[in-house]
Write a structure and sequence with these properties.
Layout lengths: L1 H4 L3 E3 L4 E4 L2 E4 L4 E6 L16 E11 L2 H16 L1 E2 L2 E2 L8 E11 L5 E2 L6 E13 L1
Parallel strand pairs: 1-4
Antiparallel strand pairs: 2-3, 4-5, 5-10, 6-7, 8-10, 9-10
Length: about 130
């Protein structure tokens, strides 16, 4: 996520950067990537003949609406963006091949403002489907 957006990304939490006094919160805007609960049907996951799909939520966080909308555009382009030849950015996952990417939820330009008004967020959800390599 950091490579395609140019901004810090935390896995399930606020991203941190190493500063002079240790690890400090990254400056806004940034993203937080969360794995969502999944439901599986069909063969067991250890069966390497089965395809599998996982869903993730990417929350863009900033101080203003325009920041999170800009960052959400970068996320959208990075995860589901296309070129004439295929996906704009490869997702390299060991032992599997990505066969589908779907943006399943997008806040649609309606960022959520915190009660204090100091934090603005924009939520997107994607589903990644893989098959054995």
């Amino acid at each position: 996520m950091e490579k395609t957006t140019g901004r810090r990304c935390g896995i399930g939490e606020l991203p941190r950067v190493e500063g002079a006094s240790g690890w400090e919160p990254a400056s806004a805007p940034y993203t937080v990537l969360d794995s969502l609960p999944a439901e599986f049907s069909g063969p067991p996951l250890w069966d390497w003949h089965a395809d599998a799909a996982w869903s993730y939520q990417i929350t863009s966080v900033g101080e203003r609406g325009d920041q999170v909308e800009w960052l959400a555009d970068r996320v959208r382009s990075g995860v589901v963006g296309r070129t004439d030849d295929g996906w704009a950015h490869d997702l390299l996952i060991p032992e599997v091949r990505v066969i589908d990417r779907e943006l399943t939820y997008d806040a649609g330009g309606e960022p959520s403002v915190s009660a204090a008004g100091a934090i603005v967020s924009y939520v997107q959800r994607v589903t990644i489907t893989v098959t054995p390599a």
